[in-house]
Design brief:
13 strands, elongated, Rossmann fold, 426 residues, 13% strand, six-stranded parallel β-sheet, 3 domains
């Protein structure tokens, strides 16, 4: 690897931020009586200092630009900073850089107070060795000075990554290589004219330039568990939406199921007509479906740096067949050991709900499958097996969420714990 220190611009390089920036700029201009502008016209606010943009785009005086900047921050500090999403593939890139011992900094002209909030909210903070940005009182935040401060703090073989000419010029002023990214808000022509050392048209191309032949970090494996009726489907959608906003490329799968072969096994094991199926047959079918899913979908996705979300995994078999079917949790764990090998989740979301509460939801949801037609005692044993499993030592991967609350409360509780776990795994 050529570069040992990578400096990232924020807007247009790490995050797609036009929603918060343009809305806040339009809010400020409207308050000042400068109306009739469109969101497209205000895309030019992304990159340059606000003060200069209000003067240039709106034709404001220095005094008016000062007032408009204050009004912009009035909205941006409350909601605008969070109207943001990370470009797909950025978390995998940051993890790979860290895996290879590269120092990482965020070098942004955005006021430091906002940059810090964004870094924490969108998962960058654990990867950063430095975060450099101006104070709120700074009207002209020169990128060259920001880059210089990063170099002073971190040293090494430095490269500046950004989407606008300001980023390229700031790096060049300090004698370091630059990478212009065209997936952001600048054009390729602008970046080339500014003298960018390299051009990257995607996050993947950026990763190839920065990492070369160096090893990539594997992705993360997240599973979701709980008795039938706990709300997994609803919360899975919220989980995937949140992870996507954080820039993860998410592979969603389920068990039993996954690829075409595993889905055929799913149909066989859950079909209500198969009432003569023996418990042992059921347990081995689940393990067979899992073995197929792990090799066909889960492992390839993890090798590609993706985050896999799987609706049920080994813990379900331990709870349902080991506890519910009374086959013994140790026995079921052993059956599945060879099926999955070392493919173990880093995070398990346990939507904890008693069988009594879950029963009411199950009955009102849909036509029950073969397992859902079991007696209450079966689900009571399943719940007890989950509780016993997750009470064991060494279960740091498990996030326990009270699923009896409202959908919104469950989602908030789940995502808060998820973010904390992701930070710990960075």
């Amino acid at each position: 690897m050529k570069y040992t220190t990578v400096l990232f611009d924020l807007d247009g390089t790490l995050t797609r931020s036009e929603e918060g920036i343009t809305r806040s700029a339009l809010y400020a201009a409207d308050k000042m009586g400068f109306t009739g502008f469109t969101k497209e016209e205000f895309m030019a606010f992304i990159g340059p200092p606000l003060f200069e943009s209000f003067k240039k785009i709106c034709g404001m005086t220095d005094e008016q630009a000062d007032q408009a900047t204050a009004l912009y921050r009035e909205r941006f500090s409350v909601v605008g900073w969070a109207e943001n999403e990370v470009y797909p593939g950025i978390p995998a890139l940051l993890r790979s850089l860290k895996k290879n011992g590269v120092k990482i900094a965020m070098a942004t002209a955005k006021p430091l107070v906002f940059a810090e909030k964004i870094a924490k909210r969108f998962g960058f903070e654990p990867y950063l060795d430095a975060l450099i940005g101006p104070g709120l009182d700074k009207k002209h935040a020169g990128k060259a000075d920001i880059v210089a401060e990063c170099i002073r703090l971190l040293g090494g073989e430095v490269v500046m990554v950004g989407d606008r000419c300001y980023d390229v010029e700031g790096g060049a002023a300090n004698g370091v290589d630059t990478i212009g990214v065209t997936y952001g808000y600048g054009t390729e022509e602008e970046l080339i004219a500014s003298g960018a050392t390299h051009i990257a048209h995607s996050v993947q191309e950026l990763a190839d330039i920065l990492l070369g032949d160096a090893p990539r970090a594997k992705g993360l494996f997240v599973t979701m568990e709980g008795v039938d009726g706990c709300g997994k489907t609803t919360q899975r959608e919220a989980l995937v939406a949140h992870l996507t906003q954080l820039g993860w490329e998410v592979q969603v799968t389920r068990e039993p199921g996954g690829d075409e072969i595993a889905e055929k096994i799913r149909h066989l094991v859950l079909d209500p007509v198969n009432t003569a199926m023996f418990d042992e047959t059921e347990a081995y079918l689940y393990a067979a479906s899992r073995a197929q899913n792990v090799r066909a979908l889960i492992r390839p996705a993890l090798e590609a740096g993706k985050l896999v979300v799987c609706d049920r995994y080994v813990d379900s078999s331990i709870a349902y067949q080991g506890g519910g079917r009374q086959m013994g949790t140790a026995r079921i764990a052993q059956i599945n050991k060879e099926a999955v090998g070392d493919t173990i989740p880093e995070i398990t979301v346990y939507l904890r709900m008693t069988p009594q509460d879950a029963l009411a939801r199950r009955l009102s949801a849909s036509e029950p499958d073969r397992l859902e037609k079991e007696k209450d005692s079966f689900f009571a044993r399943t719940f007890e097996a989950y509780e016993a499993l997750y009470a064991q030592a060494g279960m740091e991967r498990v996030i326990t969420v009270d699923a009896s609350k409202s959908i919104e409360e469950v989602t908030a509780q789940m995502l808060k714990q998820l973010d904390a776990r992701l930070e710990a795994l960075a």
